[in-house]
Amino acid sequence: MLFEQLEHIHARPAPFSTYTALDLWTDPHSSQRMLEFHIDGQTELASRTTAFIDRSVTWLSGLAGLGEGSQLLDLGCGPGLYANRLALTGAEVVGVDFSERSIDYAQSTADSTATPTYVLGNYLDVEVPGTFDVVLLAMYDYCALSPDQRRQLLDRIHGWLRQEGRFVFDVYGTRSLDEREEGVTYARDLMDGFWSDEPYHAFHHTFVYPDEGVVLDKYEIIESNRTRTIYNWLQHFTEAKLHAELHASGLTLDQLFGDLTGAPPDPDPRGFCAVASRRPEAAAVTG
Q1: φ, ψ for residue 27, nearest 5 deg
Q2: What CATH number did the domain enclosing 217 receive?
Q3: 195 is in which domain, residue-wise?
Q4: With 0-12 CB in 10 A as exposed, 13-18 as middle and 19+ as buried, what is 30?
Q5: What pLDDT, in 10s, does the model give residues 127-171?
């Protein structure tokens, strides 16, 4: 019995075969730990550093000409680290996230004179009316979605974008894929009790799928009364692959940058920022 359980724990799953993001971000204990990482300001475990976010907001504001009369949609907004700052430009900001704890924090820390509208829900299916000058998806969120989910999201973004609007997001590059190695770690209370406030045993597997450009960090958490498996999938992109996905949903890849501060692109990037827009010829068909 134990042998079979261990064989199951160590089995190599098919890419994107299971989606567990909701489990991570809605579990009372791990969502609290994630919020702590988000607002730390000095680490990049869940969000970028405060200094990086400040530079991002300055760059985004100039890139899109944000101000009075502008509308921006922040997908996966978390605790409002971008949305609350971007609202101070005068733009009307809508933030969407499926973590109730993060949304509550975002609302509680927003400036009373420039408060975004926050929507609790999964941006893959939650109702968000209106159109926007900018749709933002930060911290490699796009990479955590399966191919079908990415197509679903891009189709939604096509509908949200105004004709001159911009979709701004960042992705992992192929150098990040090349630097990942397969392996497994076991520890009692792995990651300093991140997964539970009760004692637990945990396995962390890293699986690399070079042909698909995918890495999986799989966590098996075994407590006295339950066992959970968390799958953290990460798709890695070339410019050509990203262009093809955008084109299939009526979008075009306009610009590449090194990151979300507008840094120059790296010819062999660990990650990069993309700016996309609606293709004019596709607007009448899918808009």
Answers
A1: -65, 130
A2: 2.20.25
A3: 2-12+176-235
A4: buried
A5: 999 999 999 999 999 999 999 999 999 999 999 999 999 999 999
